[in-house]
Amino acid sequence: MRDPVLLPPLLRALNGEPLATPPVWLMRQAGRYLAEYRAVRASAGDFLDLCHSPDKAAEVTLQPIRRYGFDAAILFSDILVVPDSLGQKVTFAEGEGPRLTPIRTSEDLAVLSKIGFQDKVRTVWRTVSLLREALDPNVALIGFAGSPWTVATYMVEGRGSKDYIAVKKMAYGDPGLFARLIEILSDATFDYLIGQVDAGAQVLQLFDSWAGVLPEDQFRRWVIEPTKALVQRLKAARPGIKIIGFPKGAGVLAEDYANETGVDGISLDSSQKLSWAVETLSPRFTLQGNLDPILLVSGGPALDRAVDHILEVTKGVPFIFNLGHGIVPETPPENVAALMKRIRK
User: Fold this and answer.
1) Which of 33, 37, 78, 257 is catalytic?
2) Is 32 a catalytic residue?
3) What is the pTM assigned to this prediction?
4) Average pLDDT, consecutive stretches of 10 residues, N- to C-terminus, the chain (345 residues)
5) Sequence spans of domains, the chain
6) Catalytic residue at 233?
7) CA geometry: angle 330, 205, 59, nearest 5 deg
8) Which of 155, 168, 218, 298 has its C-alpha lying 20 to 30 A from 20's C-alpha?
9) For residue 342, which phi and psi values (nearest 5 degrees)?
10) CATH topology of domain 9-343
11) Active site residue 305
């Protein structure tokens, strides 16, 4: 066991400390690539039932910590818990991803309500409490939510999208209506995340998976501005909380995102040049990322070279080792073990 007097490595990195061996956790580190997860998932019924079952959600969160010894556990949940708890119908079809009753009009928007919201998400807060009780003090606990733009995209499109026609049509053509949706989401997300912090989360990550589909002016309006407002509220309400932003696909706009939103760390996707991020964003921001998840599927020398490159480029700067997006189900668990060994050699 590491010295419990020190802050967990993840928090030290987010405080701006370069560590000889960077802390490591992986997006979707709990999931279908693990047999133990599949066993719990089979007993849980609906996917959202699993998210709202504190004992089961805590168990699958802890499974990769036991197996690999990551430096952080991230709450097992889903970004669509928020719209579901606001009253939008959300279902998960096996092999097809989420389905939502689309919100396209002001009448659709009227379905959303904060009445009962906290009662619904209280199960997630209970999961966070169970995790903080179970985790070693040296293992940081990460809470999370989807950023307003990305969650709104699902809510308007009704599913994942390749062209984002419906959500862009609303954002461009009826910005007043879309701004109301963003405001509702931002307010609910604030309450949701404050509850996670109060239950024991030490770090929050904001997932903006569809940030990269917007042109610059719309990126500023619907990604940067709502994120900035949310981060300011969170830090004012709970001073000291560390926040990592993940504007996937943002490219060079990640610099504006980091400079203007107030996040402490910036998570980079696999398409972003790590040396650019080191030169442009370090050490003002802790970097996180950005191994291609498919390298974890392939393993072998290609994985080793990529890990060594990331460690070399980020040497001497505050850094958290992670992926450029989540682990995919096809990942051999032994490749994750090899990754951990390589990082900590």
Assistant:
1) 78
2) yes
3) 0.96
4) 71 98 98 97 92 98 98 98 97 85 96 96 98 98 98 96 95 98 98 98 98 97 98 98 98 97 98 97 97 98 98 98 97 98 95
5) 9-343
6) no
7) 55
8) 298
9) -65, -40
10) TIM Barrel (3.20.20)
11) no
